[in-house]
Amino acid sequence: MPGKENKMNYDLKEIFGYFTAEGTFLKGEPYGSGHIHDTFLVETVEKEKDDYILQRLNNNIFKNIPELQHNIERVTVHLRNKLKSVAGSDIKRECLSLVPSREGKSWIVDRNGNFWRMYIFISNHRSYNIVDSPDKAFEGGKAIGRFQAMLADMPGEPLFETIPSFHDIEKRLQTLSLKIKENPAGRVSSVTKEIDMVLQRAEEMKIILKLGREGKIPVRITHNDTKFNNILLDENDKALCVIDLDTVMPGYVHYDFGDAIRTAANTAAEDEQDLSKVNMDIRLFKAYAEGYLSETGKTLNNIEKEYLAFAPKLITYTIAVRFLTDFIDGDKYFKIHSELHNLQRTRAQLKLVMSMEEQYGDMQKIIRDLT
Ligand code: ADP
Ligand code: GN1
Ligand code: MG
Questions:
Q1: How many CB atoms lie within 10 A of CB 58?
Q2: Which ligand has the nearest atom to the CA of 96?
Q3: Is the pTM for the entire model greater than 0.85?
């Protein structure tokens, strides 16, 4: 990735050596645009051998790495078993493959106490932060729909909640209120407009939690971080693999649908400074919904379907609340690349919420026509 460097000077060759990789270490470079872990692409000397993704895991955010990894082991084993029965599937590219350590675990702790894991690099994929065509949005929808469908019958105990109450908007709003009171970074007076915009919408955002409590929508296994760059497409821009499995856990389907639309149907980047460029493109919304419902239409109940149109507003709002909270808190959670980055992200997400509000009637009609 241009503009990035291995700032912490980790000895990637040594860390790579803790895992049972097939090839020989050639070089390791920072990779991707994730906001949470430190991710590196490790290339191997041998052309015919796999390359790898090496990640230093963020254990400030994920407090229990062994349980997190156990979830990912269970999920990937189950997905791989499903793919085995699909004719012509390319399992190594359609499912993440954890590389075991020399001790047989799916993670290691280095001499400085850092947690690391390694995946086989999914070759010839395409990854998009901004989606520029309905075809790509449709494929993204198919990928998430298929992912949810394949995990629907995963046996065993419920998955471990890697971040408790992750999309619980009532809790997220309580945390925001607390941080406003504490004002730890002295920034509250600079964001009163954004706080007002959040508070004005707080009540209506609680509807999904309410429907869940009333038993009208079921808890299912969901991904919970379906931003479009966590969905890899293949060299022909067809659905390939859903990655970033750290938050796969019990949730409502609206969380996945909403987060995917937040990124797949946004005409600009998540952190665009020129707010006039930030809008929801209804054609991309429709295409994603078509792809998603082509895989899940038969399993979702009527109330789940009805509230799909509302989900993008909820999740875009929730992420805005989280960016704003982190800005007020002095940037402790998300990686930032400039001083006001979290504020810029908040503003762009709130603009996107407004664009969705303007088009809400059309979104509801599209969902009604598709279901
Ligand atoms: P974060 O939680 O920080 O977003 P991710 O697990 O999403 O971390 O990884 C960051 C980026 O690395 C992804 O957006 C993707 O570009 C890339 N990536 C992760 N795993 C793989 C893989 N197995 N093959 C190819 N690219 C990957
Ligand atoms: C983080 O991990 P990444 O960069 O794909 C975050 C998501 C946010 C997203 C906003 C574990 O996603 O919840 O929606 O940033 N992941 C976690 O871009 O908090
Ligand atoms: Mg990611």
A1: 17
A2: 1
A3: yes
Please give the Cα distance from 118 to 112 (Å, whole number). Answer: 18
Which residue of 4, 37, 44, 53 sits with most ligand 1 atoms within 8 Å of its CB, as the best mutation to test the pocket? 53
Q: Which residues pair with 30 in a beta bridge?
A: 40
Q: 316: part of which helix (H) or strand (E)?
A: helix 311-328
CA distance 231 to 137: 10
List Cβ neighbours of 94 (8 Å cut-off, separation of 6 or more). Answer: 83, 240, 241
Distance 53 CA to ligand 2 centre (A): 18
Per residue in 281-296, pLDDT tens? Answer: 999 999 999 999 999 9
In this predicted model, what pLDDT tens digit does every residue of 304-342 receive, in sequence order?
A: 999 999 999 999 999 999 999 999 999 999 999 999 999
Q: 257 alpha carbon to ligand 1 midpoint, in Å?
A: 20
CA torsion sign for 335, 310, 306, 143 is: negative
CA-closest residue to ligand 2 atom 13: 225
Which of these, 178, 169, 183, lies nearest to 330 by C-alpha position? 183
